[in-house]
Amino acid sequence: MGQQGKHLNSIKVSHEKHTAGCATEIMAIPETVCISMSQHIGAPCKPLVKKGDQVKVGQLIGDTDAFVSAPIHSSVSGTVKEISTIRSVTGGEDQVVIIETDGNQDVCEEIKPPVINDMKDFIAAVRASGLVGLGGASFPTHIKLNPKNLEEVDTLIVNAAECEPFITSDHRLMLENTEYIIKGAVAIMKHLGLKKGHIGVEENKPDAIEKLRKVIADMGHSGDIEVNVLRARYPQGAERVMIYEITGKTLRAGMLPADVGVILSNVTTIAFLGQYLETGRPLTTKRVTVDGNAVAEPKNIIVPIGARIADVIAACGGYKAEPKKILMGGPMMGRAVYSDEFPIIKNNNAILAFDGPQALIPEETGCIKCGRCHGACPFKLLPVSIAEAYETKDAERLEALEVMQCMECGSCSYICPARRPLAFINKMSKGFLKEATSK
User: Fold this and answer.
1) Using the 8-state DSSP alphabet, how is residue 400 labeled?
2) Nearest 5°: phi and psi at 425?
3) Cα–Cα distance measured from residue 439 to residue 436, given in angstroms and rounded to the nearest whole number
4) What angle do the packed helices 169-176 and 178-192 form, to 10 degrees?
5) What number of other Cβ atoms are within 10 A of residue 368's Cβ?
């Protein structure tokens, strides 16, 4: 674990895992879904359907020839109501396919388990499934599983840390769909020729750790796959942190896990792959945690991709107080949205709605040069110095301070007694430096 037992800097957050004991429920199909054509890093898909078309569950409705992409499938059966655009969470415009559901959930006749004879077939099947990183990154999985230096890669790491406060959807997956996690991991190790598999889980999920170890043993993979119990510290689930904690290898910004001999993927991504290889059903649903003090009935719930946040909240008893803030994702790295009309996309793992003090951004006060931000940063950056360099637009200084190493985990902002938005300043600094160095 780490280099000679050492750990990267981290912080202790209040985990707020209220829904850890809530067995996953299945959401009723809403009257309409709004399926975005931008659900992955890379080029958006182009709609393959038009207004008035009849569609079925699992039917391909969006794709592109672009290299960095992943196809998109219908999560419902019904009629295409319109092809439109919406303002995205990040401020751009996303093309969407709006489908009026018929309630039948008829499954596309073309769905069948993939036939895989070699590595090429395996990668093609992963792409056809529509799979992207489901832990938040949304990078197309078929590209991640086909690195240029595959002969140098020997280790699979399944990221099951789930270190963000409130979110428990991965925890429930580990308890409820354990076999698919192991099947997915075994398939990747087989087709990529990897020798060792690790599943990294924080120590605050003892029931998941026990279940994983039991299923691994029952399926005869104790010699191949190991469950690594990690400290319940934030940001344990960050890619670069987890690789260091399990292997002791350092992954700097700009490097890929394959550069240090590792394939790393979120536990939900791995489990979906195990399920897809068995059923052939593409990615059309997502398990999400719905929580926050404005939600009447917090729970874990499987929702059709494209369901609007408002419909998901309604399936959880609605709001018990008017929300002052709604997040897609966790409170550390999630995104605040200005409307609950946004649709669920592939990489959403939580919807949090807050009222009262939890929704407010504390008033910023003067920096007291306490150094807590530096002590919290996994990569020992100097957020206060970065902020000063950004204020003076000193690109050379920002480069010397290695601001590009920041992964925007939010630890510095969380720990700051002056409540300065240091992580956001780091983000802005990275953008400024990229622009300055590209000229």
Assistant:
1) H
2) -65, -40
3) 6
4) 90
5) 10
What sign for the dihedral angle of Cα 289, 415, 133, 56? positive
- Opening angle at CA 255, ends 251 and 256, nearest 5: 95
State the residue for tokens 């939010």: 410
Rounded to 5°, angle at Cα 133 from 129 and 139: 95
Distance CA 51, CA 83 (A): 7
Asked if 86 and 93 touch (Cβ cutoff 8 Å), the reply is yes
Report the distance separating Cα 388 and Cα 429, nearest Å: 10
Extract long-range pairs of 325-331: CB within 8 Å, 24+ residues apart. Answer: 325/353, 325/354, 325/358, 325/359, 326/351, 326/352, 326/353, 326/354, 327/292, 327/351, 327/352, 327/353, 327/354, 328/89, 329/136, 329/164, 329/167, 330/164, 330/165, 330/166, 330/167, 331/164, 331/165, 331/166
What's the mean per-residue pLDDT of the chain? Answer: 95
Compute CA distances 225 → 212, 214, 306, whole Å: 10, 12, 35
- Round to whole Å and give the CA distance between 333 and 328: 9
Q: pLDDT digits over 242-267, tens only? A: 999 999 999 998 899 999 999 999 99
| Helix spans in 140-266 (H) | 141-144, 169-176, 178-192, 206-218, 239-247
How many helices and strands (H and E) does the chain possess?
Answer: 13, 17
Residue 410: CB atoms within 10 A of its CB come to: 24
Pair of tokens at residue 114: 């993939």
At 409-431, the pLDDT tens digits run 999 999 999 999 999 999 999 99
Partnered with residue 302 across adjacent β-strands are 26, 287
Q: How far apart are CA 246 and CA 323, in angstroms?
A: 39
Q: Which amino acid does the sequence have at 432? A: F
Q: What is the pTM of this model?
A: 0.95
Peptide bond before residue 235 is cis, with ω within 30 degrees of 0:
yes
How far apart are the C-alpha atoms of 115 and 428, rounded to whole Å?
46
Residue 200 structure tokens = 């990294």
